[in-house]
Amino acid sequence: PWCARLVRAPAAGHRCVHVGTRRLRASKAATEVILNVPETRVSPLENGLQVASEDSGLSTCTVGLWIDAGSRYENEKNNGTAHFLEHMAFKGTKKRSQLDLELEIENMGAHLNAYTSREQTVYYAKAFSKDLPRAVEILADIIQNSTLGEAEIERERGVILREMQEVETNLQEVVFDYLHATAYQKTALGRTILGPTENIKSINRNDLVEYITTHYKGPRMVLAAAGGVCHDELLDLAKCHFGNLPSAPEGGLPPLPPCSFTGSEV
């Protein structure tokens, strides 16, 4: 029937707008879905670290640490350090050997992983909700107590160099690196995540420690979790395991160099 549709007569230069019953039903359904989304709760620690969670009441959860410390925060000399650190994350801590860490995660039925982007480095775990405290403690141990052993550094250096060779044969990866280099010419966003080969061959333990000391600060971190997560419990865990992380030093964190979009033909 005509009343099931609202029709607005078009003014000069405007197109006609129709709102049918099907669209109204879709809008209502979308509203209901939005209303069922768990509330996002965010709480800061005194050192600047943010704690965020969404509790959907599941029996599993995902918890991770998002750190503003990707390749954008590097310079030409240390480009590739953030990604190198990611490779070193699960190679042992002062508390756990690499084997101990792998067995603990396996016995929990959990999954531990990390990745590096131009903007961030992320360490995260997928686990049963009951194991949230252990997952958070493991993440804290990894980013604060990694041994960064010389033998492991040399081993991962070889792994990264082989990874770079594989990336060079991946047309999609190559194109996107060229796109960034073209779009953000002579700025940090134009650099690759893996860094140049000469940097990977020369990065040493002191470079890794310096990068952690400079960038792994409370104000640059977010501990986020979703699934079967109690926010108050997560906040208490954050205070326990991350409360002693340094905040911004006097004078503030190192300034992030501006990145302007240039663009041109590739």
TrEMBL record:
Residues 202-266 form the Peptidase M16 C-terminal domain. It comes from the Eukaryota. GO terms for cellular component: mitochondrial matrix. Its EC number is 3.4.24.64. InterPro entries: Metalloenz_LuxS/M16 (IPR011249), MPP/UQCRC_Complex (IPR050361), Pept_M16_N (IPR011765), Pept_M16_Zn_BS (IPR001431), Peptidase_M16_C (IPR007863). Its main location: mitochondrion. Signal peptide: none annotated. It is found in: Mitochondrion matrix. It is an enzyme of class 3 (hydrolase). It catalyses: Release of N-terminal transit peptides from precursor proteins imported into the mitochondrion, typically with Arg in position P2. One of its GO terms (molecular function) is metal ion binding. Its cofactor is Zn(2+). One of its GO terms (biological process) is protein processing involved in protein targeting to mitochondrion. It holds the Pfam family Peptidase_M16. Residues 51-196 form the Peptidase M16 N-terminal domain. Keywords: Hydrolase, Metal-binding, Metalloprotease, Mitochondrion, Protease, Transit peptide, Zinc. Belongs to the peptidase M16 family. Heterodimer of PMPCA (alpha) and PMPCB (beta) subunits, forming the mitochondrial processing protease (MPP) in which PMPCA is involved in substrate recognition and binding and PMPCB is the catalytic subunit. Catalytic subunit of the essential mitochondrial processing protease (MPP), which cleaves the mitochondrial sequence off newly imported precursors proteins. Preferentially, cleaves after an arginine at position P2. Required for PINK1 turnover by coupling PINK1 mitochondrial import and cleavage, which results in subsequent PINK1 proteolysis. This is Mitochondrial-processing peptidase subunit beta. It comes from Rhinopomastus cyanomelas (Common scimitarbill). The gene is Pmpcb.
